[in-house]
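ok posting inputs for the manganese (II) ion job
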Amino acid sequence: MSMDTNNLRINIARLLDRLDQLAQIGKIDGDGVCRLALTDEDKAGRDLVCRWMHDLGLDVSVDRVGNVIGTRAGTEDGPVVLTGSHIDTVGTGGRYDGTLGVLAGLEVIASMNDMDMQTTLPLGVGFFTNEEGVRFQPDMMGSMVHQGHLPLDGMLRSKDRDGATLDGELNRIGYAGDVDVDTMRAAAFVELHVEQGPVLEQRGITIGAVDSVQGLLWKQITFSGTSNHAGTTPMSLRHDCGYAAGEIATFGRHLAIDMGEPQVVTVGTILMEPNLINVIAKQSIITVDLRNTDLTLLREAEARLDAHANNIAASEGLDVEIETLARYDPTPFDQRVVDLITDNAMTLGCSVRQMPSGAGHDAQAFAPNCPTAMIFVPSVGGISHNVAEYTEADDLEAGTNVLLHTLVSLANRETDLS
Ligand code: GLV
Ligand code: MN
Ligand code: MN
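and the output
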């Protein structure tokens, strides 16, 4: 932390007010938020954040996959020091997941504007399209396209369950921008996010300096069989996709237990056709989310799942199709940025711990291309992807101050990243 910025602090009341205003858009029961990517609610959220970016004097650009970046000039032309996250949510989201990282970035800019403070390198705040991957797969789509890891054209063609294309929806809501993707190489990327897990709270620690993200694999298994009468069809003559779906869900749990931590497996959706009480299901579509910090173990989990799906299909006389909807290897962050975050947290009087992330994040897309790390703040009860998601204001303030000092240090080239 340089001498003249030691006393710089963010304004928590202003950050909380912005969080509250954005949380009104797509508000659902229980004080939660549903702002699925590229819906009308996402558009309204985007419009509000863009207005704030303009009000703060940022130069706002929209790229071809709808990522929005607001930039504040530095005293020198050079690569931007970037922060940001996402403002789309899962269907049962809270007000912090993603949103915090974007609005904290704006609060950093606002605080610097208040002080009339300049940095050497430009600073940018971005929000990236479809991070959650609930409506269109894969997740982290916008940031991965932005950094050249996913193909723009293929992603523009991706469809939601109702057949709407990403391209069509971007145009419909007015966020099909004209800035090329895979062109920006940032000087550094730092993302503030709620932990979404129990570790910080359980250990009484305020700041997580995130050093890696675990690997993620999304599989979709489609069984096809035969519908028939539930009362008259002998068990031995069934081609029952409902049974197969249940087998996959149970297998996922047993697989995770058998492999042990850190393997986790989640069956989050099962769609059945025709989904009637007295009709054997002729089709079931099951999604499976598998994660592990170790790539070899993640691949082993995948192989065992695939083999089990094939075995069920063979024994029940079903057709099976196994698709991969998302595949991200474990991602290490830059230890120099992790240490900078750790040092800044300590200088600001916060307890801090270096830790991996269990959730996926936009920062993963930047990590291979520029020095990258993340800052976590505690999630009360470790709850997220749930309307009850909550983080104490003191922790939001601490995390945003760590973000501020980390960005300033990077943008003033006080940390050697050469
Ligand atoms: C992103 O929110 C994830 O599923 O980790
Ligand atoms: Mn998130
Ligand atoms: Mn999320």
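notes: DSSP finds twelve helices and 15 strands in the chain. The mean pLDDT is 97.
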